[in-house]
Design goal:
Number of helices: 10
Protein name: DNJC7 protein
Organism: Bucco capensis
Oligomer: single chain
Strand content: under 5%
Largest sheet: none
TPR repeats: 3-36
InterPro entries: SRC_co-chaperone (IPR052758), TPR-like_helical_dom_sf (IPR011990), TPR_rpt (IPR019734)
Pfam family, one: TPR_11
Number of strands: 0
Length: 174
């Protein structure tokens, strides 16, 4: 009951967009009852709102370890992987959601997003070899729309901007 009360307080702060306080209450819920998948899922959602995708990924993964049928946990894990630029792992998570709920429109859309990122990565790789750095920058900009926390994409973009002689932009991205 105490853990559930902490979760409800966390939900109230989350609804008010006070994600730091929500995080604190979800953490108290987890400390009180460490085997509840939804508490980890809620904290993962909060961390995602704070832009802390690596930490959120850990909580999302823990939520599905505790309950493999926890759809929101798989969705959050996938969104974290995608935000961090790991589109292949994200795809696996969204496919798992579709195994559990084949009509899940969010998973269908996110799977398309992950596929798009993979396509931009492949195009960028080919164009980098061709030394078409302008096209690589374009591809990385598109990929970063879905993977805003991906350091690898940002570094590649910065490198290509530098190779194009666009040093201030390269420095800004780096």
């Amino acid at each position: 009951r105490e853990a559930e009360s902490f979760k409800e307080q966390g939900n109230a702060y989350y609804a008010k967009k006070d994600y730091n306080e929500a995080y604190n209450y979800y953490t108290k819920a987890i400390d009180t009852c460490p085997n509840n998948a939804s508490y980890y899922g809620n904290r993962a959602a909060t961390l995602m709102m704070l832009g802390r995708f690596r930490e959120a990924l850990g909580d999302a993964q823990q939520s599905v370890r505790l309950d493999d049928s926890f759809v929101r946990g798989h969705l959050r894990e996938g969104k974290c992987h995608l935000s961090l630029g790991n589109a292949m792992a994200a795809s696996r998570c969204f496919q798992r959601v579709l195994e559990l709920d084949h009509k899940n429109s969010q998973a269908q859309q996110e799977l398309k997003n992950a596929t798009t990122v993979l396509e931009y990565e492949k195009i960028a790789e080919v164009d980098f070899e061709k030394r078409d750095f302008r096209k690589v920058v374009f591809c990385m900009d598109r990929a970063l729309e879905f993977a805003p926390a991906c350091h690898r994409f940002k570094i590649l973009k910065a490198e290509c901007l530098a190779l194009l002689g666009r040093y201030p932009e390269a420095q800004s991205v780096a």
